[in-house]
Design goal:
- The protein is mainly alpha-helical and 407 residues long.
- The protein has a single domain, classed as ABC transporter involved in vitamin B12 uptake, BtuC (Orthogonal Bundle), CATH 1.10.3470.
- Helix content is 70%, strand content 1%.
- The chain has 17 helices and two strands.
Length: 407
């Protein structure tokens, strides 16, 4: 093991330093060689990637079950387990060759911004997948939170206000109301699954229909009468549109506030899953529910907590979507749950339950966003984009089932 650890540390450290050196060389050589418009921000990307790999090598522990064995058999398993990631890297290289403008910091920031609310939603839905379930109501909860929060956050001078006589309330009030509304439906999901042992697919499908109907009734209330909600207050819109560090150097567009919000939520969810009793119970219930009961775990209470926590994250995602787009309709969030489930599966969350990590979910969301954004960047037909997305989902599930059978 010590030899393998040594090889692994050297592989990441030396490889990272080589990529870092290449990035530095290109950074200082691009102007004299006239490469500015040919490679754009590629040197900066290489420097960041090189630093990441080098730090991973330096920080590798002496003993780890996840160390890379360089044998041919394990290398083949590595290729199989990371086939989608490797295919994405090849696709990115092809896109960069066809359209070098893809190699820009601005593009990377756009991808991270688009991934932020999707990631928050995927982190919520991963809890239901970890107990070998699912949540088909997630997308409709996003729509509900968007409509409820936006309806109370219109400017006083907007002609078609949802609540004409509503005073200008504090920003946090509609946000809390929208999230609590989602958590009520999350509690309903949890109750149906935990109390009646109803399959999560059926329970959340029923709740999905109820939520959409309730949201549509609310959206159709006079004087709004199903008109798209607009005239959003600037202080609310800033929650999704604010740019940090904009203009710190020439041409830098700034970092969307959604990115650090998503990072903070990732850290919180990682802590919950890895450092709390509740997180350990989630994995235990997903791994073997009968054994969890024998071990004294309160399955009813934990399942209720899972669906309520997940719905809280959907509510946060919905509020941020309304702020980002400065508006809302009752169709917001339609189909989002399918993309979130697919991203979780691609990121290594097993449909059989009990297996999944926050880092993998982040990677799964980024993979889908990069592929979608990249294909749009080179003007690939939206119909072909759907075909490619379907192939990715099918391959990811096939790999997941293959790994499960081996175990």
């Amino acid at each position: 093991m010590a030899e393998n650890v040594s090889k692994t540390k050297k592989l990441f450290t030396v490889g990272g330093l080589i990529v870092l050196a290449l990035g530095i060389i290109l950074y200082f050589a691009e102007a004299p060689l006239g490469l500015n418009r040919k490679i754009y921000d590629l040197p900066i990307f290489l420097i960041i990637i090189g630093l990441g790999f080098a730090l991973k090598g330096f920080m590798s522990k002496a003993k780890s079950e996840n160390e890379l064995d360089l044998g041919s058999k394990t290398f083949g398993e590595f290729l199989t387990n990371n086939a989608i990631l490797l295919a994405m890297l090849v696709l990115v290289v092809v896109i960069c060759i066809l359209q070098p403008r893809f190699m820009q910091i601005r593009v990377a920031l756009d991808i991270l911004t688009q991934s932020s609310t999707k990631l928050i939603m995927a982190l919520g839905i991963c809890f239901t997948l970890l107990i070998a379930g699912t949540d088909l109501s997630a997308g409709r909860m996003v729509g509900l939170a968007s409509v409820v929060s936006a309806s109370m956050m219109q400017t006083a001078t907007y002609a078609n206000r949802f609540f004409p006589d509503l005073p200008q309330v504090q920003v946090w009030m509609p946000i809390i109301i929208a999230i609590v509304a989602c958590m009520i439906f999350g509690a309903l999901n949890g109750f149906l699954v935990a109390k009646y042992d109803m399959h999560p697919f059926i329970a959340t499908l029923a709740t999905q229909v109820i939520i959409y109907g309730a949201c549509s009734l609310y959206f159709d209330m006079p004087p709004n009468n199903s008109q798209p909600i607009g005239g959003i207050r600037p202080d609310f819109a800033q929650l999704g549109q604010m740019r940090l560090f904009a203009g710190i150097y020439k041409g830098f567009p700034g970092i969307s506030i959604l990115i650090p919000i998503a990072v903070v939520i990732c850290i919180i969810i990682w802590f919950v899953l890895n450092k709390t009793v509740f997180g350990k119970n989630v994995y235990a219930i997903g791994g073997n529910r009968e054994a969890a009961v024998v071990a004294g775990i309160n399955v009813f209470r934990n399942i209720m907590g899972i669906f309520i926590l997940a719905s809280c994250l959907y509510g946060i995602a919905g509020v941020l979507e309304a702020a980002r787009t400065a508006g809302a309709t009752n169709n917001y969030g339609n189909g989002y749950e399918l993309d979130a489930i697919a991203a979780c599966v691609v990121g290594g969350v097993s449909l059989s339950g009990g297996i999944g990590k926050v880092g993998g979910i982040v990677m799964g969301v980024l993979i889908f966003t990069i592929i979608q954004y990249g294909l749009q960047f080179i003007n690939v037909s939206p119909m072909w984009q759907q075909v490619i997305k379907g192939v990715i989902i099918a391959v990811a599930v096939a790999i997941d089932l293959t790994k499960y059978r081996r175990k």
